[in-house]
Each structure stands twice: as C-alpha cells, then as structure tokens.
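Two folds, back to back.
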Amino acid sequence: MNEKPTAFDPFQDRLSRDIRNDLSSTFSKALAAGDPALIETLVKSLLTRDLSSCYRDYILSRIDRFRRAFDLIRKSDNDVFRQGFILWDLQLFFEVHEVLEHAWYHAQGEKKLLLQALIRAAGVYIKLEFGYSRQAGKMAERALPVLEKNAEFLGRYFPPEEFLSALRTLDPHPPILLKDPSSLSGLQ
C-alpha cells in the first residue's frame, strides 16, 4: 500500500522536488517574459491533479507569494539584486536562487562572487526550513566572507548587519531586508 506523504520535502521526496523546481523555473520565465499567466497556467494544471494536501498547500502558498512578488518586481527597476531581495522578503528562497543564478551566469568579477554568495545565503534558509542545520552552516560559512566584503554595496539596498548576523547565527527567522514601505507594500 502506497501512503501519501504528509509533509512537503524536496530533499526526500521526488514529487516535492519536481513541483518546487517546476514552479520556480516557470516563475523565473514568467518574470523574464513579463507574463504572469505562465505561472498561473502551471498552477492550474498542478491543482487539477490528485495531490496530497501537503503538495496543494505548498502550491497555494507559493502562488500567493508569486503574485505579490510579480507585482512588486514589475513596479521596480530591472535591478536583479532588488528582485532577489524582494523574493527574499517573501521567503521565496529557492526563487532567489533561480533568479540570481541567471544573472550569475553572465556576471564577472566581484559581482559574480556577490551573486554566488547571495545564492548561498538563500540556500541557508532553504536548508534550515527542512532541518539541515549542518549543511546550512557550511553554506553560511562560504557566503559570509564575500557578503561582509560587500557590506557597503548591500547597504545601498538595506542595512546589512541584521542580514549578516542572521547568517552568522543561523537565525531560523530570516530578516526582512527591504525596509522601504514602497518596496514592501502588502508584504506583512
């Protein structure tokens, strides 16, 4: 007898991983195309399937945050860092990884290193969410030197100390980065 999973876990369950990856890559494509219908279509398709509540809950939680992110990003400039920070504040850490990784491919020098460190920082919270503290700690150790070196750059967007401190201590509650209410309208 096959039992349906009771928890969404992309590290232990193939369907969880497939759903997460499909949603994230489609969201990234929707952002690039400026077409939210791409993600809406995928969500509708997924929700027509006979899925356990853990999968449905994950999908529904994501689509709400995707809509909010899409609106906020559309109203902002094309700054990939700001896009990543908006996604961070919505706790869309896998999507932070997805969006920043596309910029990372084409970046060079210090920008490439900073994008990689931010991807790792998002990875810290992906790992923490599923109880992988040791791996999260290793990711934080690799990200922190570059983030600390670029604290002045990060300061153009947000005061970086709370962010850096959260990574140093593996704070299970990720800090809100963009404190500007116009950037965060509707986030809380």
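---
second:
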Amino acid sequence: MSFPRALLLVMLALFASPAWANLIYVLNSGDATISLIDSVTRAEIRRIPALREPHHLTLTPDGRDLLIADSGGNELYVMDPANAEVRRRVRVSNPYHLAYSPDGKYLVVASLRRDQVDIYDARDLSLLQRLRVGDKPSHIAFDPESRFAYVTLQGVRSVMAIDMATRQPAWQAEVGREPAGITWNRGRLLVGVMGESHFAVLNPETRQVERQIPTGRGAHTIFPSPDGSVLYGTSRVDSRIIAINPETLEITRSYEVPGGPDCIAFDPEGRIWVSLRWVQRVGILDPRNGDLETIRVGRSPHGVFVQPVRGE
C-alpha cells in the first residue's frame, strides 16, 4: 500500500463518526442531558444537552431510530441508536411517556402535565387523535393484539383503556393512589401503585383488581426480562428491585438497590441497568449473584436504554 493511501485511510478512521457497540443511554431529567456510557469500560463517554427535561425513550419497531421524549422542551429527538447522532427533532406537545403499538402502526404519547394522550401514525409521526383525559396521564401499555392502549392516570387513581380502532376511551378502572408504570402480562395488567406499597393486578375483562403484589413504598414499574422468564419490579422509596414469577406472580427474590431504582434495561449478558433517581447514578445489577455497581451520571436519571451489539 502506498504511503498517501495509507495516510488517507488513517485520516478517514480518525474523522469518521464514532459508533460504539452496547451504548447505554441514560436520560438525566434534572439537568436536561443524555449520558452515553460504554458498557465495556463502564465510563461515560459523552453527555448530550437536551432542551429541558428528558424522561422516557423508545426504539422504533424497525430498530432504526431511538426516540427520546423531552417533555419540558416539547419535542422528540430522533437519534441513531448506534452512535447517538441526532437525525431530526420533532415538535410534540409535552411528551412524557411513549410507546409503539405491537403491530407497529401507532405511537402513543402521554402528556403528564397537559392531561392529554396523543396518537400518532408511526410511519410519519403525523397526529391522528388527541384525547383530553383525567389528571396526569403517566405510562402506557398495550395488549399483544394492539386492540387497546392502557394509560395510567396518576391524579385520579385509575387506568384508562383506549380502543385503538376508534381511538376513543373505552373504560376506566380504579387501581389505587398514584398509579405509574403499567405492563401487560398473560392477560392481566400489572400496575405500579406509587402512592402505596404494591403492584395491582388488574383484569381488563372484569376491570377489577384481582390481587396485589407487595413490593415496598413507591412501587413504580415492572419490566419483563428479555426471555420473559422473570419480571422485575422497582420500588423507588424503599429502594429495592423484586423478581417475580410471571406465571404465579409470586416474588422469588428481592435486591436492595440504594438510590431510588426507577427504569430498567437489560444488556446482552443479562445484567440489569437501572436508573437511581435520588443519587445521580445508574446501577448495574447482576441478578444471578446480586452484585451491584454504580456509575455517576447527571441529576435525576430516569429512562435507560441499552443498544444491542450489531449482528447479534
């Protein structure tokens, strides 16, 4: 190889856009930044400024884009998940929590401060329907067939069902004080009753709470493991993560995780990355042995995302 050609290749390598395998994204809602962490070195390699208050994020159904909701800034960041390049920014009214329907047709956005739920066309993010709802719509879940979206209403102790065929509210059921996270599991909705000390198990057919799963104060959200064999629930006030059998809904293990565990993501090795809202850190928990490591990030970290290794 000639010297000029070799020099050119070196220069191209130096100036190429960086791309990291297994990037970890942490949304710091308290100081309006996004921390990027290299999962191998466990070092924060970059901090991206947001407008005002990023809280939650989701991957598009095709895996090409990562959507980050800046609720205070009234916009979505559409990013390349492999290298955190901002591809575009979309004006959206107070996006707090967001989720795609399993069939990939819709993006539903909950606006905690404006008491509205917006339904967008997933293809071009055009607004299809705006619903004025009860106080503080918080988190969103779907049934596997995408027939209904379910939204927790923190201010009115309820879960609301939205019929996705008509894009209108179908029913509302009371579950307890300050419901937050909501997850579909085997025909039931598991709801974090943040103002109490348990997860409510709601039957969407009867619209009744069938049982409670005790977890400690500040019960927040349940996250299924990638293989679906375990459910992990977070308790922000009592600072623990519980492991739940998805069939019996019995607690199989409890992990003490100081700092207010909130949102969870899983890396390919099965470790749990969890935002610790009260201590400006993200935790890495190995559920096999309970080992816990923490990394400093920005203030009030909330949403977490693990970018899978390309090709896996």
